[in-house]
Amino acid sequence: MTSVRLFARLREVAGAERVELPGSTVTDVLDAARAAYGTDFGRALTGAQVWVNGERVGADAVIPDGAEVAILPPVSGGAMVVRSPVTFEFGLVAAFTLGLTLANFLSLQWLAVVTVLLMTLWVFDLTGTGERRGLFVAAVPIYLGVVGGVLATYRFGGPGMAAAVVGTIILGLVWSVGRTHLREVESIAGTASVGLVACLGASSLILIRLRSRDDATVFLVIALAAIVVAWLADRSDMPIVDPMIGMILGGLMAGLAASALWSPDVSSSVFASAAAVAGLVGGRTLGMLVRAGGYFGTDELPGSLGYFDGVVLAAGAYAAVLMSLG
């Protein structure tokens, strides 16, 4: 008999998290499961991924004696994994943004420390949520990329940031080749995409602060306003706008106001603010793809830091335009 661990819909149909099934190959075990738990279980198995002792395997793989088999069904837009309450999410992400704002006023050094801490937590939340739906991403190279990006940008500015971003992507690709369960195209693409955005976002926050504290303040005001409006749209039973549109409108209005109040170069700041809003949309879309496996404009996303997804990429867009115009 083989010990099989079930997840999501499979666990619900079988009525147990762990079952014992006969079979010496993956195909034998899956056939035994279908026979034991019926048609609904068989439908839930469609497209499922099978893991043996922590490695993804195919249907013809032989199961060694004493091995543990895990079966993970695909997750669709209508079958999300558990997410945190939306009020908790808003409070947590708002605390993130306010923490960055406080660190920005204290010093560049404090901003660097807080950026590393918060970005690491965001990467943990994003990659962990993706893993729970079957998308495995090499998180370690991304953590290293965040730390390396902040340090390199702090020391060398723009060239340091560029080197860190490229290094993060290369390290992620090499790391994926070295781990069997990370060699799938989806995992490699996820590692490269999340690594790029995480390192770029963390480094950009430092680069913006190196330019001026006021520029960093403008960006953080945009981020906080976008989060608040998106949260209000999520909370409303009959929202005037959906969360994505609300994020765009809130970010644009906040960018215009903050640029007029704090920016030493209003015109550059306004253009950079528009780029940040585009980054908010792109970052939220990336978050949907990793967390839920597709674009779902109004669905609630799993995880605790979904509202922060857009902020990370927005930092890179804001910095790119600001530096090119300045």
- Got a strand count? 5
Overall pLDDT level = 85
Alpha-carbon distance between the two ends: 67 Å
Topology as H/E string? EHEHEEEHHHHHHHHH
Structural class: alpha+beta
Overall 3D geometry?
elongated
Strand fraction: 5-15%
How many independent structural domains? 2
Please summarize the sheet with the most strands.
5 strands, mixed
Rg is 22 Å
- What is the share of helical residues? 55-70%
Strand order of the largest sheet: 2-1-5-3-4
Poorly predicted regions: 75-84
* H/I helix tally: 11
Please describe what this structure looks like.
This protein is of the alpha+beta class. It has two domains: 71 residues, Beta-grasp domain (Ubiquitin-like (UB roll), Roll); 240 residues, no CATH class. It contains eleven helices and five strands. A five-stranded mixed sheet has the order 2-1-5-3-4. Strand 3 and strand 4 form a beta hairpin.
